[in-house]
Amino acid sequence: MTASTTEILKRTPLYELHLKLGARLVPFAGYEMPVQYPTGIVAEHNWTRANAGLFDVSHMGQATLIGTDHPSVAKTLEKLVPGDILGLDLGRIRYTQFTTPDGGIIDDLMVSRPLAGSDDGHLGLVVNASRKDVDYDWMRQHLPDGIILHRADELALLALQGPKAVEVLARHCSESSSLAFMSSARAFFDGIDCHIARSGYTGEDGFEISVRAEDATRLAEILLAEPEVKAIGLGARDSLRLEAGLCLYGHDIDESTSPVEAGLSWSIGKRRKAEGGFIGAERILKELRDGPPRKRVGIRLEGRAPAREGAPIQSSDGKRIGTVTSGGFGPTVNAPIAMGYVEAGYAETGTPLSLIVRDKPLQAAVASLPFVAHTYKR
Amino acid sequence: MPELRFTKDHEWILIDGDTATVGITNHAQGQLGDVVFVDLPAVGKQVTKGGEAAVVESVKAASEVYAPVTGEVVAINGELSGDPSLVNRAAETEGWFMKLKLADPGELSDLMDKAAYDKFVAEG
Q: Are B41 and B98 in contact (CB under 8 A)?
């Protein structure tokens, strides 16, 4: 709890609202962000699973890749990611990764193709806050003439997540309820021009709302006035995504882990698996063919003590076989849970493991992911 | 009547004869948030003033708790294993961590009383 020294932290357009709501603000990826509000992480987590939670995720990087037509801009992006971008239908969103020449992950991102024909040749991107500059530099190094990267730093991003998100949003934005999971559309929220996507990072049904910075507080306050909605901080966002088995960049995935090791092969398009043609394809296609040397797995612990990132993982005969990359307490599971990488031979669900915490082994076992079933509306 | 004394590391201590009951302050539990596990020392363990005596796990992170005085652990609060949230609900009473047999009563002199601790917290 030492005070930050010289780093100047950025603030999102909702900063004043966070203060008003009594948020505890912490430095996160260069931003001063709410880790929790007065009710605390467990209450916020449970509220989101039962009702609707509103998250400020304006620190994330929003950008648009602009070309003349979909095939040319899609093929440009496909050199950098293993996802099928060319085959993205109008109004659809795809999860993919920027990959290094060695097949590691530079960042994971969402790519959306606009619905309107007039925006043909545009691709909306949402990247991690901590990787914005790296991602944008990487893209610019690889963009041909005629394709422009526009940083949409003038936009805020709010996420409304939970089983009641759809009914709440529909009161203000009639376009929202007909949107399928992993689709997006331009919409009007009580007259506020915005872009809504049915997606999120909690495992729950929900939406991400991209809106001009100057409209963000008004939109957030309208949502928070609904009885089903409470503001939720980054602490609960982390416990929700861990229960949902979703990767956090810099922890569960990084430049050393491949999408195959990370269990993200599902996000690699069928055509891309056959054709390759993206940076890092050599390792990724080899691992798809032969299996990766290690795999990301879910882990359930037997007692009540959690294991945190960095905890060594041992097999039942005491051999070091991996490391925990995310770990904590899952409020919905009501037990300590973790994710980590283990040698491929130990990745089968049910395999007994020991996690070493403060020099003591905690009994655990490989668990199937997610820990809490997703409730996406497909 | 004995009163709680406090450390700058946000522990409290209650002296009864040569036994000290130790816990974390209400301010500390508020900072930690929802406590999900408390790793307590074994009875019989010797702890040294300022040394690690226990670990509190909140949803978010693990935090060390330091021994406010030197001594032998003579009891631990068994209630915390089944109900760690007792630390949040009753940090300075039923949510105690351990009892220590004091090795050096002279160590008590630099602890703060309630007024001094509240001032210390308020000044950040």
A: yes
Interface test with B, best of A304, A355, A357, A362 (most B CBs within 10 A): A304
CATH code at position A301: 2.40.30.110
Strand B71-76 and strand A206-212: the pairing is unpaired
Would A261 be classed as within a structural domain?
no
Contact yes or no for A33/A130 (Cβ under 8 A)? no
A-to-B residue pairs, Cβ atoms closer than 8 angstroms: 43
Q: Which residue of A has its CA nearest to B9?
A: A1
The answer to whether the beta carbons of residues A366 and A298 sit under 8 Å apart is yes
Segment A17-39, tens digit of pLDDT = 999 999 999 999 999 999 999 99
Do residues A299 and A364 make contact, with C-beta atoms less than 8 angstroms apart? yes
Give the separation between CA B76 and CA B48, rounded to whole angstroms.
16
Instruction: List the strands of the sheet with A105-112, edge to edge.
Output: A93-99, A105-112, A122-127, A61-66, A148-151
Q: Are residues A167 and A230 in the same domain?
A: yes
CA distance A68 to A66: 7
Q: What is the pLDDT of residue A362?
A: 97
Q: Which domain holds residue A42?
A: 15-58+154-243
Structure tokens at A283: 């390792």
| Cα(A231)–Cα(A55) distance, integer angstroms | 6
pLDDT digits (tens, 9 = 90+) for A208-244: 999 999 999 999 999 999 999 999 999 999 999 999 9
Show which of residues 251-290 on chain A sit within 8 Å of chain B, judged by CB atoms.
none
User: Nearest residue of B to residue A44 by CA position?
Assistant: B34
